[in-house]
Amino acid sequence: MVADVAVVGGGFTGLWTTLALLESQPSLSVVLVEAGRFGVGASGRNGGFLDPSLTHGLANGQRHFAAELAELEKLAEENYVGFRAALNEHAIDCSFEPTGMLEVATQPWQVVALHEWFAAHRDRGHDVELLSGAQAQERLESPLVQAAVRRPNAGGVLDPAALVDGLADAVTALGAQLREQSQVIAIEAANGGAVVRTELGHVRARKVVLATDAWSRELVPQTRKHYVTVYDYVLVTRPLSSVELASIGWKGREGVSDAGNHFHYFRLTSDDRILWGGYDAVRHHGDALGEQFDRWPPTFDRLERHFRAFFPQLSDVEFTHRWGGPIAVTTRFTPVFGTAFGGRLHYALGYTGLGVGATRFAARVLSEQVLGVQSPLAELAYVRKRPFPFPPEPMRSIAVGLTQRAITKADANDGRRGVWLRVLDRFGVGLDS
Ligand SMILES: Cc1cc2nc3c(=O)[nH]c(=O)nc-3n(C[C@H](O)[C@H](O)[C@H](O)COP(=O)(O)OP(=O)(O)OC[C@H]3O[C@@H](n4cnc5c(N)ncnc54)[C@H](O)[C@@H]3O)c2cc1C
Question: How far apart are CA 163 and CA 159, in angstroms?
Answer without folding.
Answer: 6
